[in-house]
Amino acid sequence: MDVQSIVDAIVTFTREHQAWVMPMAFIVAFLESFCFLSILWPGTAILVGIALLLAKSGIAASIIWPAIIAAGFGGTLGYAVSYWIGEYYKEEIKTIWPFNRNPAMIETGKAFFDRWGAISVFFGHFFGPVRAVIPVVAGIYQVPQWQFQLANITSAFIWAAGVIIPPYYGLQYLLA
Asked: Would the pTM count as exceeding 0.70?
């Protein structure tokens, strides 16, 4: 099963089962933000597709904010679990896939983290190449929990709104 098939299946499911928009947004955002799966999972594209589908199907905008909140919580939890994995495994993380296949990922994350500090957690939600490693590196290097979670929660909700609102309202505008 290729990536396009996964995206198509999720978008079709969403069209047919609108009540599942919130759980879908949560799961998609969680997988997009989880350290190991975010490398393979096209979560941003799926959320954009869901937003476009909702706009095209004429669903009221009242469903958008619950979807954003669900995606924000999913992104927050994905990053938090990734942080705790880094905190728990520390140096052993280098022996776990995908880091054992590409050890430069941790070094890239560390360099990004060294340059930007705790704010890199905030930026990490928006930049795919470092999204997979920033929370793990933050856990490895024991960024204070409150700093990590503050940046994590703030950026996850801004990311979710930025991924869902523009395509939904943009298509609504074009269809009007």
From this structure: yes
pLDDT band at 155 (very low <50, low <70, confident <90, very high): very high
Structure tokens at 81: 């679990």
CA–CA distance, 116 with 4 (Å, rounded to integer): 34
Least Cα distance to 28 among 51, 12, 1, 10 occurs for: 10
How large a percentage of the chain has pLDDT more than 70?
95
Displacement of CA 176 from its chain's centroid (Å): 30
Integer Cα distance of 43 and 29 in angstroms: 6
Question: Tokens representing 150?
Answer: 């503050």
Residues 6+ apart with CB under 8 A from 135: 33, 35, 79, 80, 82, 83, 86, 121, 124, 148, 152
Integer Cα distance of 110 and 124 in angstroms? 12
- Is 176 in a helix, a strand, or coil? coil
Tell me what pLDDT residue 4 has: 77
For residues 138 and 83, the answer to whether their CB atoms sit within 8 Å is yes
